[in-house]
Design a protein that fits this description.
The structure is a homodimer. By secondary structure, chain A is α+β, with helices and mostly antiparallel strands. The first copy, chain A, contains five helices and six strands. In chain A, β3 and β4 form a beta hairpin. The longest helix of chain A is centred in the middle third of the chain and has 14 residues. At the A-B interface, α4, β5, β6 and α5 of A face α4, β5, β6 and α5 of B. β5 of chain A pairs antiparallel with β6 of chain B. The first copy, chain A, binds a DNA duplex (25 and 25 nucleotides) through α1 and α3.
Chain lengths: ~130, ~130
DNA sequence: CTTTTTGCAAATCGTTTGCATGGAC
DNA sequence: GTCCATGCAAACGATTTGCAAAAAG
């Protein structure tokens, strides 16, 4: 195991992630952080996003289209993913403990709390035709 | 719009999908169907899997690691994905209508029925250390 | 001075696509 | 004969990796 060293790039990535509500892709993070560090590479962005996710300082969200999304909000909450536009939206529900209980009656694995992902159509995609 | 024509390859893919309970990846379908059609190409497998999904005769399941999974069982049911081994398992819960109702109180998109995905650790990965 | 992190480019993985040929109708 | 489906190989997009140079400690 290696000791973590400070890096200004990682700090900038973390800061952007915490200030953004849009669950950015790695490329969106790259575009934004490049304003402060014009020479930063996409590889460095990926390395740091994965590192932050491993450290529990960010959440990596798998989506069906257009790449994974990242979330700097680590307090437990649910996510919804629009299958039309691909956007990810926070769902501020109370914890769905009864769902896990119901699942465990029929299933002997362990369901991770707040892990479940909802899919459907977001309000923007409903309105814009 | 084009008219669908019969193909023995597509029929074989559909048959394998219906007989399998393991939510195979495109590559697993390829390996299996190749026993009957040694010259079938991976591109054809992908084209047919996507076609079947579009026709509603199969379900395409996005997973965090190792590629998408496909399911020939089209009757509504939930899925669990093990974040350790990547396997997808059917969850035979009653429909979680109260979850959708709870979500709709805080959210004005449309959550697709039976769309949600649960994540965690499957029993195999718990037992095998 | 040692170890971690970076930038860069090449590699990898899953998936899609263009095109000429073969099969369905 | 007309389209649709196939096999093949090349292209693609997202992500990871190897490596020498730069930064942190």
């Amino acid at each position: 195991m290696s000791t973590l060293k400070y890096s200004r790039q990682r700090e900038s990535i973390k800061e952007y992630l915490n200030s953004s509500c849009e669950h950015p892709t790695a490329d969106m993070v790259y575009m934004s952080v490049r304003q402060e560090f014009p020479n930063i590479s996409l590889g460095t962005v990926y390395r740091n996003l994965n590192l932050l996710a491993d450290l529990g300082e960010a959440i990596k969200i798998t989506t069906p289209n257009g790449g994974d999304r990242f979330d700097g909000r680590t307090a437990p909450h649910y996510h919804f993913c629009c299958t039309k536009c691909g956007n990810v939206i926070d769902l501020d529900l109370k914890e769905l403990t009864h769902v896990n209980e119901a699942a465990n009656e029929h299933f002997d694995g362990i369901i991770e709390s707040h892990s479940m992902m909802f899919y459907g159509t977001c309000s923007d995609c409903i309105n814009n035709q």
